[in-house]
């Protein structure tokens, strides 16, 4: 398990991520997407598990789901569960907003 910290405080982390704007973030060797919806932060694989389109170009709907730009498959941002389409679930990573900033945990092997 590897931990990464973004920002120096709660507010600093919030300021780094304008609401519903998907950002590409490199953590170690891994490139992931991060998006904030209210005070919920979601971290996920930057490539769609269907055909590998970049989810950085995806969009966020009102149900905390990300929609792939290529075939519009939808994934739950919290669990990664596929909501529409036919492929495996999206890999998501645990986030927590703390007084020290946003903490993201990548599983070992990532
Ligand atoms: S590549 Fe994402 S839905 Fe097909």
UniProtKB/TrEMBL annotation:
Keyword Iron: yes
Organism: Algoriphagus formosus
Keywords recorded for this protein, A-Z: 2Fe-2S, Iron, Iron-sulfur, Metal-binding
Domain Rieske intervals: 9-104
Similarity-based family: Belongs to the bacterial ring-hydroxylating dioxygenase ferredoxin component family.
GO molecular function (one): 2 iron, 2 sulfur cluster binding
The protein, known as: Rieske (2Fe-2S) protein
Cofactor(s) in the UniProt record: [2Fe-2S] cluster
């Amino acid at each position: 398990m590897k931990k990464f910290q973004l920002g120096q405080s709660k507010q600093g982390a919030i300021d780094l991520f304008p609401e519903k704007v998907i950002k590409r973030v490199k953590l170690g060797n891994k490139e992931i997407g991060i998006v904030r919806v209210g005070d919920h932060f979601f971290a996920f694989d930057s490539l769609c598990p269907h055909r590998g389109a970049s989810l950085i170009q995806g969009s966020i709907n009102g149900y905390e789901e990300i929609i792939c730009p290529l075939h519009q498959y939808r994934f739950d941002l919290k669990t990664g569960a596929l909501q529409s389409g036919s492929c495996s679930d999206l890999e998501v990573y645990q986030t927590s907003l703390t007084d020290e900033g946003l903490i993201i945990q990548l599983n070992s092997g990532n």
